[in-house]
Amino acid sequence: MSYSETVSFKRRLAWLAVAAAALILVVAWRLFTVQVLSHQRYLSQAANAHSRKTTVAASRGEIFIRDGDKKTPLALNQTLKTLYADPSQVKDKAAAAKALAGVTGQPEAGYVKALQKPGDYTVLGRSLNREVAERVMALKLTGIGLSNQPQRVYPEGTLAAQVLGFVNADGQGQYGLEGYLNQELVGTPGLLRAKTDTRGNPIATADNFIKPAVNGTGYVLTLDRNIQAQAEKYLKEGVERVRAKSGSVVIVDPSNGAVKAMANFPTYDPNAYSQVRDYGLFSNAVVSDQFEPGSGFKIFTMAAGLATGKVKPDTTFEDTGSVEVDGRTIRNAANHRYGRQNMTDVIQKSLNTGVVFILKSLGGDPANINLTGKRVLHEYITKRFGFGLATGIEQAGEVAGAVNRPTNANGNNVNYANITFGQGVSVSMIQMATATAAIANGGKLYQPHLIDEVITPDGTSKPVTPKLVNGNVVTPEVARQLTDMMVQVVEKGSGYQTRIPGYKVAGKTGTAQIPRADGKGYEDKKNIGSFVGFAPAENPRFVMMVRINEPQTSGFAESTTVPVFGDIARWLLHYYKVEPQ
Amino acid sequence: MSSATYAVRRNQNLYRRSAQLELGPVSVSFVMIAIISVLALLYLTQITKTSVYGYRLSELADKQAKLTAANQEMQVEAARLRSIQQIKSAPAVAQLVPETQVHYVR
Prior knowledge:
Chain A is built from 19 helices and 23 strands. By secondary structure, chain A is α+β, with helices and mostly antiparallel strands.
């Protein structure tokens, strides 16, 4: 090799070395970026390729209703299927549509239209049952698939709809029990993290991780299916009979506060909640609607008078048909004027003047209303009977109502005079029924409740103990006196249509005006009729309140609500097998 | 003592050499390869068995899910058939008459 050849060889060797070094540097840089800079990204890609994280859904707690001594389902779960397609994967759309229509019974044209949509996902159908889903799977159509669709099912349809509420498309409970108990009902989802094969199927390995799902809590309600159904039937008939806007019924066991029926009309089917256009139908008016109770409230004014000893059943006053309060004239309904009347007459004839007399007596001055009298009345209706406070019943959207404090500007003498006969105060039906139950049972105020048993996720049942809120609202003697007065309402007064041969029924009617939306006075020719009572008077098995809103027929509560109360009470006494006296 | 006995004693090997197993490097390699192969085979068998159990488990879980869905469906159907609305629409119920007077027999 000559000198020049040697130099050339060495030069080429040097270039080769440089090229090799450059190549090594490039490879090293690439390795550095992959191994160091993009370490996490590739690590997660690799993890995703051979492992899978899946959320394990918890089963929503089921709800049952009493049926005599047994229980029957009111809210269940069902896994239905959603039929979907990736239109880009479906080669022969017409053939696929025809095949699908053949097994689902749906129109072929609808499937053709859906399959011609652009994009890679379109829903072809929802809520397919297992049988149809299996037939679809058997078709083995490319680009057509099925996914699980958990669904809440209410097998009793409209029964107790507003008490139940519903579960929306996101699995969240709305309104009623479903809304109020959503956290407890929904449970805790589990987690599955597992190594998978090339098809994504989990493989059993030691490092798989499973956190099991905890199913939701179930509930057995205090509602009785038969009572609920009958209450709904008679309420519907009553509302339609007087062409009213709406109506509600609540029936409570006075011995423990258990709600036996709670119904509203019109109602809806929670299985088809999405078809409801009037969202007001979702609310349970028994707990979420506050209203002026009217004369039904007089029994609580009378309770305060009797309990404080300021009046007795035979205490008399002079009814002149009206009474002046701070320049305002308060009159009896229909301007009736009865002359000398006792306290039983006040309830039986529903005298506004009589209950204003009691308010004055509470303050120690039968001629005037004073702060002491207002304070005593306020204490009785709020702290003892529970008005102005939510009862705590297991329902979403419960209202507390409102009672003005006697020391507030709004709680003036005129307001308190109105409160004595149920105006200028707002209450809910559940408050009225609960407070009346305290009279029916001799003076014990129980928290109204809808849950009888709690079914824990492991399947064991725990009974719910009734909560006694106040064991001495009034004395048993005062409760008996009030009961006797309420019996007179049915025997001789406005509640005569609830008279049932062989049984003593106690009750009180109320016809309240509806305040105008602008706050200036009351609506003309619109009223709310109510009747609250219990039977048998001497040993009550139930307390019931019926309310009819804005009847189109003329007349007071005795022609709108009392017949509904009478129909249900008659049926209930037979259902409970209460022997006539 | 008989002459035969003496004869045995005479031929007795009084010095015993212990048996020695000596393996060369090639033999050791082969043995090691064999042991490793057997162990690898055992490992693979166990892994395969575990995977098979995994698939079996998946199949059973699928089957359980299907049975649960079927059970739910039947429960719902049974509840619907027993519902008040269904009972009211039954032909036999349509022929019932409302009670007008109830007598209690003591």
